[in-house]
Amino acid sequence: MWAQAMAFARRGWVAVAFLRRGYGRSEGEWAETYGSCSNPDYARAGRAGAEDIAAVAKFMATEPYVSKGKWISVGVSAGAFATVALTADPPHDLAAALSFAPGRGSTTPDAVCGEKQLTSAFAEFGKTSRIPLLWVSAENDHFFGLRLTSQFTSAFSNAGGHVTFVKAPPFGTDGHQLFSVASGIPIWSPVLDRFLASNNLMLRGRLIDVPAPNVAAPSNLKSNGREAFRTYLDSGPNKAFAVVAGDSRFGWATGRRTIEEARRDALGLCASGANAKCTVVNANNKPVE
After folding, report:
1. Range of the domain at 55
2. What pTM was computed for the model?
């Protein structure tokens, strides 16, 4: 989420990307289980996720570089569902919430366990939610399509929740990736700015300038490789980019805990499925001699 965090930081916000309990390499067991597909308890799962968001906000409020007084929660998919749940029992100074394609229980494209229970969970959250909520879903979302999204938003707002719903145009092969993929940022950024402005949450008159890294792509890459290299440059550390000498094959890794781990993973992805000798040519945006 480096590029997404950067989009908020450029608007003057301290941007914090984190893992809730049980995701990735975070400690502790998965806290957001909702039981069986036949009778899921989505409301409980949403509240568990909301607890983790609130815990992060409480910790960040103690950091000296973080201003006090207002913060916003941003989530996508299950994280967006947890964000909706957060608005139902909002911590101190939560000013607004942004949810991209919220929901739980998608098992296959255009299929969800317990649609009735999921709709009821949104209605339950709406009963006490009064925080401004921006809800963005792409037209071709195959996790939670527009038919379901209409049910969810209606249940939430009819129960009393304050929601601004925006239907985004189709994005890629599955609009559920609109927020998760950096190329979606130009689509949702204007929506974000209108929402922030309408709630007096614009912190700057203009974006903070962040110059693009001035690093040339390896000369042997084809068009898809050069595009991948540009995406690599915009991603966050620790990262590495590897190529096969005299060949167009490549591999890259980002968001690793150490640069050594990034190098290892980039080399592995570069050589995957081929008897190729790969070399790391860039690490954390710096050419490797």
Report:
1. 2-198
2. 0.90
